[in-house]
Structures are given as structure tokens and as C-alpha cells.
């Protein structure tokens, strides 16, 4: 096994990127030709984070939540968080912008709510809206919107590598939302990681749709397990596949995009 070493330049670059992101948050209103407004009787800049699922989903919602906690220590910043906002993202965004006075709103996964959120952004030009993912049509976006890439496929590649080593049956099941380009990138990255561990590993994918209920996700995961998969993975907005994993006692990896391998009582990951 190779020994991993960390290059000092790479570490400094990572910290520089984090500092740059924080600076962007604090200066976003000025970048739009606006001054940071006084909100709720305070001079603090209000930042709202909309989570499409649970903040502790072992996935990209949790990754955003940990980043949000890091922002709390910055001077002049006030944080407002709303979880389980899927289905009500536009209305929740309006509540953050209006009563809560947030001037930056970060959305972890817009999905089908993107048109409503863009309408909110268009109606509140003094607020910056930031979305994780790729825009559909850059030419028609309000000037106060921005999109950022989460590089989820990198985490999925590592999850696939772990899953490949954990699987004894050499069959892995993955529950995904829908075959959009960004989802397929993560699925392919996961598959490549699994095959780095063992080139004979087979990956079976079940697409359940963006609006799948936790029960539907669990049923898809159960079907994959009954079909021979001894490791389950997910590329979803929530962690519905975990319930099937606990009942089936299979190993679980990649719960909700940013993966964590969770060993079962009879198998270590």
C-alpha cells in the first residue's frame, strides 16, 4: 500500500480556496453594486441555507451544513438554516429573504423548484442566490444568481473504491434519482472506483426519479439486494436507501451523494 503524503503547496491552495469562498459570501452584495444592508436591526450580513433534505444525511446536505458552521465564526455574518425544504424551496426562500432579511441564499439542490427560485431571485435583485449544480440556460438567468460545482463525482469515486473492496459478491447496487448529466457523472465515477478495486465488479443501477418517496427508494434498494448486491449505494437528495440497508444487513456506501461507508455487523468496509 502506498503512503499518502500531503504537499504543503496543495494544503495552502485548499485554505486559499476556502478563504476565497468566504470572501465571496461577504462581498457578494457589493459585487452587484449594492451595499450590505442592515437586516433585522443588525449590521450583520444575513446568509440563508436551504437544505433539500436532512442536514445529517451523510451526504451533500451535511457537507453544506458543515461548511455553514464554519461560516458562523466569520465576523459580520448571521446564518439562517432551513432543512427538509424540498417541495417548498421557493416559499422558504421568500421567507428567508423577507422576514429574515437574508441577502445571500444558498440552495443545496434546486431540482424542479429552480424556476420558482429563479423567479424569487428576479423579484429580489438585492439578494444573491447561489445554487449547487449547473444552470440550464445562462443567458436567461437573473444577474444576481450564481451556480457552483460540488465536485461530487470525486467523492463518489472514492466511495466506489471502498464499495469495491467491501463487496464479496462483486455485485454492487446503486439507487439514483434520474439520468441527468451530473448524476451520470457520479454514477460513472462510482463505477470506475469500484472497478479499480476489482475489475470483475458489476454495478447495477436503479433510477427512481427526482420525486421518489423514501419508501420507493427503500423498495429499489431492497430489490437490488435481493438481486445479489451485497453493497448498496445512493445518488439521491436523501438517505432513503439506508433503511433498506439496516434491514437487509448489507454494507451501505454513498448515502446521499457525499458517501460514507457504513459497515454492517457481518462485514467491515
Question: In brief, what are we looking at here?
Answer:
This protein has helices spanning 8-31, 60-72, 89-97, 114-123, 152-166, 181-197, 214-226, 241-248, and strands at residues 45-50, 77-82, 104-107, 128-132, 145-148, 171-176, 202-207, 231-235, 251-253. It is α/β, with parallel strands linked by helices.
What this model shows, in words?
With 269 residues, this protein is α/β, with parallel strands linked by helices. It has two domains: 36-148, Response regulator (Rossmann fold, 3-Layer(aba) Sandwich); 152-253, Response regulator (Rossmann fold, 3-Layer(aba) Sandwich). 41% of the residues lie in helices and 17% in strands. It has eight helices and nine strands. The strands form two sheets. It has a five-stranded parallel β-sheet with strand order 2-1-3-4-5, sandwiched between helices. It has a four-stranded parallel β-sheet with strand order 7-6-8-9, sandwiched between helices. Strand 1, helix 2 and strand 2 form a beta-alpha-beta unit. The longest helix is centred in the first third of the chain and has 24 residues, at 8-31. It is elongated, with a radius of gyration of 20 Å. The two termini are 17 Å apart. Residues 1-22, 34-41, 243-250 and 252-269 have low confidence and may be disordered.
